[in-house]
Structures are given as C-alpha cells and as structure tokens.
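Running this now, will post back.
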Amino acid sequence: MKDAVDSIGPDPFETQTLARAAISAMAHPGRVLRCTATCAGLLRAFVPAGTRLYLGEGSGAAGFAPPVGARIVQAPGEAVIAAARGDAGAALIGTLSRGTLPHPEDGALLLLAVTGLTEAPDAGATVFWIGRGAAGGRTRRLSVKGLAEGFIAARAAINGAYPMGVDILLVDEGSGTLAGLPRHSRLDMREI
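Update: finished.
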C-alpha cells in the first residue's frame, strides 16, 4: 500500500506526523523532540509543489532531496524554505529573506542538518541557552554538534528586528530528533 501512495506523492501520514513534530518543536523553543524525522521527509512535509526552495552547501550529503514539484532557486534570498548542513548555517542565514514589517510571515524557514542534538551537556558541542519572549520566560539548555562558529551572532543579526526574521528547525542527521529556534527566541552562550 505504501508504494501505491508514494507513486502519487508523499505519504500523507508521514507528512502529517513530521509537520506536527516540527510545529511542536517551534512552539517549545529548544526542546528536543524524539521522532524519526529524515531531512528528505521534512522537505516533503514543508515544501508543497511550487514552493521556492534553496538547497545550500552540503544539503545533498545531509539527505535533503528536493520533493517533486519544488521550485529550486539559485539565490537564497528568493527562497521561502532553505535547507543546508549546520556547518553552513552561519553563512547562509544572513542571505535569507526575513520578511518586511507589514509582512513578517515572508521570513524564511531554515532547516539545518546537525550531527548531534540534546538538552544535556555534550562534549564537543556548541551549548547555548534559549530564552523565550521579551521578559525571558523559561530558559532551556541545548547542545548542538555540527554548527558553524558564528551561528549565534548571525542568527541574532537577522532576527534583531522582530517580528521580521528567520525561523530555524534543527534536525539530527543520525537520530532524527528535532529542535526549533523560532525568530522570537533568544540564544545566549554560557558556561555549563
């Protein structure tokens, strides 16, 4: 039965499950959600036919395959959704659309494939704290492997004029876990 569904398009159950997990990850910034997301599956969930998609450096090696019907663009600023390896994220984020004040919803969604993602301290990982909202709200620790140096500064620069900005979804290439970094969340590096 699955082959019959795949022949006409993505599996609707898979896309619904992945979309629900990704939305939950964005609703709870920095919370690592255990699921079996694949990079290609996330693109199928978020890139319907005609959507402008930019595939960044190393995206093919990370498992991002363009879904059928996606409009591949050559300039990152034209993309609604962009996908890349985490080590290319710092350079890519500043080139994406952050929307305009009247239309902040035009800001891009960036999917980054990383090599490790956990809420616990992890040796060799970039560790940062995530605060929500203007008053800070709760903070959550997130350890990420495979991000480029300068990622936090690049993200702060593009998201500095909230509500304009770029939303980010991190996916662990190995385990399929997800974590969301919506544009309104603040990242701060601290000692463990």
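Confidence is low (pLDDT under 50) at residues 1-8. More later if anyone needs it.
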